[in-house]
Design brief:
This protein is α/β, with parallel strands linked by helices and 315 residues long. The chain has eleven helices and 14 strands. The chain has helices at 8-18, 36-51, 74-85, 113-122, 153-170, 187-190, 201-210, 213-229, 258-266, 277-289, 291-294; strands spanning 26-31, 65-71, 87-90, 93-96, 102-106, 128-131, 138-141, 147-150, 178-184, 234-239, 241-243, 251-254, 274-276, 300-305. β3 (87-90) and β4 (93-96) form a beta hairpin. The radius of gyration is 22 Å and the shape is globular.
Length: 315
């Protein structure tokens, strides 16, 4: 039997038999990766990727995904590497464990030309990215049992300015398919014209207040505006007040601050919708993995725990 080696289909088949082609690992960028949610995002993306594939690694042993963690300092790079890869102590000396799926990129002051260049390079070759604003408010419980919103005012402007530069750098990437932005509830209501608002005006003002007020929402608002003005394909997740609970609590989705208003109207404590960082990371990673479904839609989605569930339900 003669083989027609001029047939391109047959040649390709023979080539695959001799030298199998393995899929290249996709790279995902996580900014502010040294923060609490940033570390959760990195590990959640890796875990989510394994759910959408047949195995946690390619046939050749290489990882299915690589996380490019953008941090501000060497200390943050050490922290995320230690937390996600672990360390080994041998003969009195410590060393990081091998972690071929994690790459840390230290980018200092983004207003400096050299660091701005590094930031642009961080997005090169990446398939997707999750951008985090570190000034997102969070809900904490005081010693007296009352709830209070804590807003890192000292870092608010600095981190918000950095996020704008990250969006600018992302727009220069030719490989990015989708960007997920962590934002905050309250932006729709705080941007509403009160005179045209059909509901209770006092309730509207209270809803914005429990999410930190206009000053706390300025950073996320600027970031959303910059993202909308870009050519990037994106999904914006407007989250409730964040907690450090373990999560795995049922999640609800809404739009135009409907979840926030329902929460404020439904109870006397004026406590905003809540969401653990772990659950927020789970949602963000899922959006990134299912980016084909979200492609071209440029959705803005409110996200929080279901009202009938709370911190005591976490875990």
């Amino acid at each position: 039997m003669m083989l027609n080696l001029r047939s391109p289909q047959l040649c390709l088949t023979l080539l695959l038999m001799v030298h199998p082609v393995f899929p290249l690992a996709q790279t995902f960028v996580v900014t502010h990766a040294g923060g609490r949610m940033g570390k959760l995002l990195a590990s959640q993306i890796r875990e989510s990727a394994s759910l959408y594939k047949d195995a946690p690694a390619n046939v050749d042993g290489s990882p299915l995904v690589k996380i490019r963690a953008v941090v501000r300092t060497e200390e943050e790079a050490m922290s995320i590497t230690c937390d996600l890869a672990g360390m080994t102590l041998r003969n009195g000396k410590t060393s990081y464990n091998k972690c071929d799926w994690l790459e840390t990129v230290v980018v200092g002051d983004v207003l400096l030309e050299e660091n701005a260049r590094l930031l642009v390079e961080a997005f090169e070759g990446a398939t997707g990215a999750i951008l985090c604003d570190a000034s997102h408010n969070e809900l904490i419980q005081m010693d007296d049992g009352k709830w209070s919103l804590r807003i890192p005012a000292n870092e608010n402007k600095e981190i918000s300015d950095r996020l704008l530069e990250e969006i600018k750098a992302a727009t220069k990437s030719k490989s990015l398919e989708h960007v997920v932005l962590r934002s905050s509830m309250g932006l729709f209501l705080s941007g509403s014209d009160i005179s045209s608002y059909e509901g209770d005006e006092a309730m509207l003002l209270e809803a914005v207040k429990v999410m930190g007020g206009d000053e706390a929402l300025l950073g996320p608002r600027r970031a959303e505006h910059a993202l909308r003005a870009s050519d990037l394909d994106f999904t914006i997740l407007r989250l409730g007040a964040l907690t450090d609970d373990v999560g795995m609590v049922p999640i609800v989705f809404g739009k135009d601050d409907s979840l926030l208003l329902k929460r404020i109207e439904g109870q006397n404590t004026r406590r905003p919708p809540m969401l653990s960082r772990a659950d927020a990371a789970r949602v963000a990673a899922s959006v990134l993995m299912e980016r084909d479904f979200f492609a071209g839609k440029r959705l803005v989605i409110d996200c929080a725990w279901a009202p009938s569930w709370g911190r005591s339900s976490a875990g």
